[in-house]
Amino acid sequence: MAETQRAPVPAHEMIYEQQQLPSLRSNRGKYVEPSSTGWMRPTSRDTPVEEMRRRYKEDGYVWIKNLMPREDVYDMREHYFTHMSPTGLLLPNTSPRDGIFNSALDPLAHQGVGGTPEQSALELIDAAHATPVYRKFLTHPDLRGFVREFMGWEQEVLLKRGILRHHSPGSLSTGIHYDQIFLRGGEPEFLTAWVPIGDCTATGGGLMYLEKSAELGKKIEKDFTEKAKLLPAGDRISAFNANMEAGGFISQDADEFSRIEAEGKLRWLVGDYEAGDVVFHTPWMIHAATQNEDEFGRIRLASDLRFYEKGAALDKRWMKFFTYNDGL
């Protein structure tokens, strides 16, 4: 009797067995307890859009694998580190495409956005956000087409204030936050795209997400809004008003935050990101960067982008190119 052949399992239904969870920590504090960490769920590009939307609603994020061509992403990485090379950031005799940190330097003196860059690097960092290569990268048809399809929008609007963040091994980076903190001048109807520009392992300084934390983000913002009632109008929407912590972040200690604010009920989720992947998340999803402990000394580079539907009540403060001291 002939053996019946099974139909192949669609990629979006496959269960991937991942390796042991890495040790994670944020800018400050000890490593997060292993019981409080987990792996993010990857989603293949050919997953039905209805399933992608379900995951986004349920998880607060959707991590799309191989959305953009890998070489296009590495071209952007090479451009950025060539642009930044006058700072001495790169290991001598290595390619800007690899983006290997010069370990002879003090990483705290060579931080990117999210940390405190040296004054001498600020001009280059600001200029990087306006280069024709970066602005063209943000129009990539695979990215923009996906946003329209996924959100069901006829036309999307990308806030001009896209952000490039490099994060060297041993330096400080993005603290714990949800994005609406920084975009209070508009309605929380935007879609954030986090684009890793190069491969980035779970311990390489990429983003970690607090599991199903959107409701906690809304609760924290409600408390901030109540406290800000008596502040001047401009201060009420500022991420840096008198009620906020430094940098607009809600914490710098992932272990403490998950134990106290999340009452030990929510895990920090991470992934091994590859060039071409994009993670989309909601305005309320709590997240932060992990410490960059990349074994090869690679600098983490990524871009944060926010999309609204055309005609939505967007935060007009963000309709200008990023500069480090723009107060946003």
Strand content: 5-15%
Helical content class: 10-25%
The residue-averaged pLDDT reads 90
Structural class: alpha+beta
| Number of separate strands | 11
Uncertain runs with pLDDT below 50, 5 residues or more?
1-9
Shape: globular
Order of helices and strands: EEHEHHHHEEEEHHHEEEE
* Tally of helical runs: 8
The largest pleated sheet is described as: 7 strands, mixed
Please give the alpha-carbon distance between the first and last residues: 70 Å
Name the quaternary structure. Answer: single chain
How do the strands and helices of this protein lay out in sequence?
Blueprint (H helix, E strand, L loop, with lengths): L36 E3 L2 E2 L5 H11 L1 E4 L5 H15 L34 H10 L3 H6 L3 H11 L4 E3 L4 E5 L23 E6 L10 E4 L3 H14 L5 H4 L17 H7 L7 E3 L7 E4 L5 E3 L10 E10 L19
Parallel strand pairs: 1-8, 2-3
Antiparallel strand pairs: 3-9, 4-11, 5-11, 6-9, 6-11, 7-8, 7-10
